[in-house]
Design goal:
The chain is an alpha+beta fold. The chain contains 6 helices and 3 strands, in the order αββαβαααα. The chain folds into 2 domains: 105 residues, ANL, C-terminal domain (GMP Synthetase, Chain A, domain 3, 2-Layer Sandwich); 84 residues, Non-ribosomal Peptide Synthetase Peptidyl Carrier Protein, Chain A (Orthogonal Bundle).
Length: 214
């Protein structure tokens, strides 16, 4: 699939609350290419950036393949322009220098349950963030479809929870996802008991009982 950042930018500018948009490719924390969308909010955009980005992301998912949905959204209150009034792409901040938490304007809530705390540790490792709150959104913190697939695999291997990828997308906050994990753990089949092999060393052949026809 050929991915055109300009096409994605066009779709972004048709969304409510988006005054301007620019999509570019940058390496993620593992050095893999990722799509990054820069947004200039319109006056009608929600004051809470996380809510605004969530709406825009969901709208894109309904119109574009998952591979064309940006992994990162960076909201800029001040749109850098050249003296000719065009976007100054060189003045856009490198995604690695932007703290994702500055884009999420909601109070931090400590994880409250054992499942939330365990899941927060998994998120921290996958997303490369210092802390994760109960109300944080996986995708607001830099998650994307590839990382969601890795997350599903780690939930299976580390927490014994088989959670379908579609359900992770539908419950992106830590608290909601932790509830899915708890439900999956309760309904998981009990592990099979290991099969014990007989210790053949305990058995010896009686030399007096031979098959000589006697």
């Amino acid at each position: 699939m050929r991915i055109e950042p300009t096409e994605i930018s066009h779709h972004l500018t048709t969304q409510p609350g988006v005054a301007a948009a620019h999509v570019a490719v940058y390496p993620d924390q593992d050095g893999q290419p990722q799509l990054v969308a820069y947004l200039q909010p319109a006056a009608s955009a929600p004051a809470e950036h996380g809510e605004h980005v969530a709406r825009v992301r969901e709208a894109l998912r309904r119109r574009l393949p998952e591979a064309m949905v940006p992994a990162r959204f960076i909201v800029l209150d001040t749109w850098p322009v050249t003296i000719n009034g065009k976007l100054d792409t060189r003045a856009l901040p490198d995604p690695s220098t932007v703290d994702v938490r500055t884009q999420v304007r909601r109070p931090f809530v400590e994880p409250r349950t054992p499942a939330e705390r365990s899941l927060a540790a998994v998120w921290q490792a996958l997303l490369g963030v210092d802390r994760v709150g109960a109300d944080d959104d996986f995708f607001d913190l830099g998650g994307h479809s590839l990382l969601a697939s890795r997350l599903a695999a780690r939930l299976r291997s580390e927490m014994g929870a088989e959670v379908p990828l579609a359900e992770l997308f539908a419950a992106p906050t830590l608290a909601a996802m932790a509830r899915l994990v708890e439900q999956a753990q309760r309904t998981a089949p009990a592990p099979l008991a290991p099969i014990r092999r007989a210790d053949r060393s305990k058995y010896t052949l009686n030399p007096e009982r031979s098959t000589t026809g006697e």
